[in-house]
Amino acid sequence: MDLVPALQEPLKQPLKSVLGPATAKVMAEHLGLHTVGDLLHHYPRRYEERGQLTHLADLPMDEHVTVVAQVADVRLHTFASSRAPRGKGQRLEVTITDGSGRLQLVFFGNGVHKPHKELLPGTRAMFAGKVSVFNRRLQLAHPAYELLKGEDGEAAESWAGALIPMYPATAKLESWKIGKAVQTVLPSAQEALDPLPESLRAGRGLVALPEALLKIHRPHSKADIADAHARLKWDEAFVLQVALARRRHADTQLPAVARVPVPDGLLAAFDDRLPFTLTEGQRKVSREIFADLATEHPMHRLLQGEVGSGKTLVALRAMLAVVDAGGQAAMLAPTEVLAQQHHRSVTEMMGELAEGGMLGGAEHGTKVVLLTGSMGAAARRKALLDLATGEAGVVIGTHALIEDKVQFHDLGLVVVDEQHRFGVEQRDALRGKGRQPPHLLVMTATPIPRTVAMTVFGDLETSVLDQLPAGRSPIASHVVPAADKPHFLARAWERVREEVAKGHQAYVVCPRIGDEEDDPKKAAAKKSAEDEAEKRPPLAVLDVADRLGKGPLHGLKVEVLHGRMQPDDKDAVMRRFAAGETDVLVATTVIEVGVNVPNATVMVIMDADRFGVSQLHQLRGRVGRGAAPGLCLLVSEMPEASAARQRLNAVASTLDGFELSRIDLEQRREGDVLGQAQSGARSSLRVLAVIDDEEIIAEAREEAAVLVAADPDLEHLPGLRTALDALLDEEREQYLEKG
Q1: What is the per-residue DSSP string for 362-377?
Q2: Contact at 8 Å (CB) between 509 and 632?
Q3: When you count CB atoms within 10 A of the terminal residue's CB, does the N or C end of the chain come out lower?
Q4: What's the pLDDT tens digit per position in 219-228?
């Protein structure tokens, strides 16, 4: 393995005289920078421009300006303040002139000493800062300045035009100190090994890596920054896509049992029972899945689809195909509520086909068992026995499926529902229960933009269900501004009563349960300037249910559902709600996915601004699942101009989950999205933006696939191998190994 000695140098030893052990320690602990290479890849977040030289007569308000002027007058004032009650506060006022006008500079506190010594009357200097108004006079507060020796007009121009890199910093290490450290190690950039193959770099007109590093840290122009970004974005996209392409290539080398459904078996019998026809989308995705199942290496497919697009039905048909072929299928759900809901809906859809080997069961039937952590000992023993003997073809469960005691007769397919809620280790443990690696189908109801799918789930083939089944009703969504217009909230409760009067049911969702103690530290840490709405604790299920039962929904049957209830109690509440015995279910987000009650037509989400965009879209998908139209009311006390309200307006304005996922991604840090791909490690993406750089990611994926097919071990590309080592530290390597 070729290493890059200069770039592998630890920051602590070689640079003692420059960084000092204290600075190196802060860089390691707070910024994750350990080597010279790490520091060179710590790119500026943005660049400050001192601005073009401005005449004092033409100063614009609230803009950063750079002026060349002469000091006309200097005055030091002392004053009393809360910080300096004995009249020891200091303010330095410097008046400067350039012949066209005059301007006042002010410095306070400890910041007065240096300028008081240096800015003497008659001194000529450049000053850069933001123009503000104080006492109806223009001023610059604490401007940066550089003294000019003699009549150096050229120095003034170049200083004013310089681009000052601003680095991602920490309270313990300011941007300018990081900048100085970077300048110290910048000569080492010449020894950087280029990860891009020469043909790719030349073909796309990209600058060499050492040049890109110089240009990003010490640009002479905006064109330099653009060149550097174009090159470094390709590095990030290409190295990540090569890692994923190698992962896909390794999968094709693994053995798996091909699972082909028999013509007149369980799947055919199930299809005959369906009271509706599959959508074209469901048929197309099923064909893709069945083609994968028929191969002798493991399927790795991501099935993503809109809320209510029928993913569960597609997954169930795949599971039945595997049972037909003599194997077993397991569906892993993130919560007990969801596992129970899936078990209930699967057994209802299958009818007597889910009673294989039982009296009244169908000839082609199989047994469908539920396995959760809270089951009684006898039921659990029976379920485990059915799995070990192969009696049960389909098992639906929570992480209880992963425990060592659980043995399968012949596990052929693992379906993971709501991928983002499972750790990689959990998925891996379940896959390890097959005699050979089982096929894997990952489902998510959170639509993912194509670029994120390529970047986060790049080792999975992707199927998309974006067509809603016939009979699904549209959902109207409205924001209810509870603080500005309290009568709107009163009207919301009237709408709930009207729906119940028509024989329908309603959900009310709250962010909190209400029996936990509020953490005073958390409350103290909350210092949002948004509004009072941010300062109070989020509304809680138990409080809201109590208030509604005694007030606006008095006389209706109101029940609560939350994650800390006993599993049997949760199941009983869901069964009563599904049976229509409960009018209003006040719940936390435990109802976010998988819960299917077609008679529920209205959802009121309290403190909707406390939820993410994708989560709101998920929740909304619980209504409008039958013939009657759905209504979703997003209640918020946030002011109209706030970012939170704009987010809610976006959710109310579209039912397109893919569009909302883009909005969601644009509003969050990239690392949040990529965290799941990188096992919580610091995001490797520093200049690549997964939304804006779709074209680069798609092209990098194609290039990576061609390169890995020709040279899976990258024998001829030592620079690329080194870059992969840097990306795939031990934790990420394990992540990709486990898929």
Answers
A1: -TT--EEEEE-TTS-H
A2: no
A3: N
A4: 988 999 999 9
Burial string for 121-138 (b: 16+ CB within 10 Å, else e) reads eebbbbbbbebeeeeeeb
CB 222 within 8 A of CB 82: no
Q: Is 627 exposed, middle or buried (0-12, 13-18, 19+ CB in 10 A)?
A: exposed
Q: What is the pLDDT of residue 225?
A: 94
| Structure tokens, 174 | 């300011």
Over pLDDT 70: what percentage of the chain? 82
Q: C-alpha 450: how far from its chain's center? A: 14
d(CA 40, CA 25): 17
**Are 405 and 338 a contacting pair, CB within 8 Å?**
no
Query: Cα–Cα distance between 558 and 548 in angstroms, integer?
Result: 8
- What are the tens digits of pLDDT across the range 560-597? 998 888 878 888 898 899 999 999 999 988 776 667 78
446, containing H or E segment: none
Nearest to 634 by CA among 603, 597, 590: 603
Which residue type sits at 218?
R
Q: What is the share, in percent, of the chain residues with pLDDT greater than 90?
A: 30
Pairing of strands 137-141, 124-134: antiparallel
Which amino acid is it at 175?
Answer: S
In the chain, the N- to C-terminal Cα span, in Å, equals 25
Q: What is the mean pLDDT of the chain?
A: 81
Contacts for 328 with CB less than 8 Å, ≥ 6 apart? 322, 387, 390, 392, 393, 394, 395, 408, 409, 410, 411, 412, 413
- For residue range 292-351, list pLDDT tens digits in order: 999 999 998 989 887 777 888 999 999 999 999 999 999 988 888 788 888 988 998 898
* Distance from C-alpha of 330 to C-alpha of 333, rounded to nearest angstrom: 10
Read off the pLDDT band of 601 (50, 70, 90).
Answer: very high
Contact between 405 and 377 (Cβ < 8 Å): no
- What are the tokens at 351? 């009818």
Cα dist from 589 to 113, 560, 606, whole Å: 57, 12, 11
The string of DSSP letters for 666-725 reads: HHS-HHHHHTTTTTTSPPS-SS--TTTTHHHHHHHHHHHHHHHHH-TT-TT-HHHHHHHH
Judge contact between 605 and 587, C-beta under 8 A: no
Report how far residue 431's alpha carbon sits from residue 729's, in angstroms, rounded to the nearest whole number: 23
Total Cβ atoms within 10 A of residue 650: 16
Q: Which of 436, 441, 434 is nearest to 460 (CA)?
A: 441
Write out pLDDT tens, residues 695-723. Answer: 888 899 999 999 998 988 888 888 888 77
The pLDDT of 138-148, averaged and rounded, is 84
Distances in Å between the Cα of 308 and the Cα atoms of 264, 269, 505, 596 are 29, 24, 18, 9
| Torsion 318-324-325-331 (CA) sign | positive
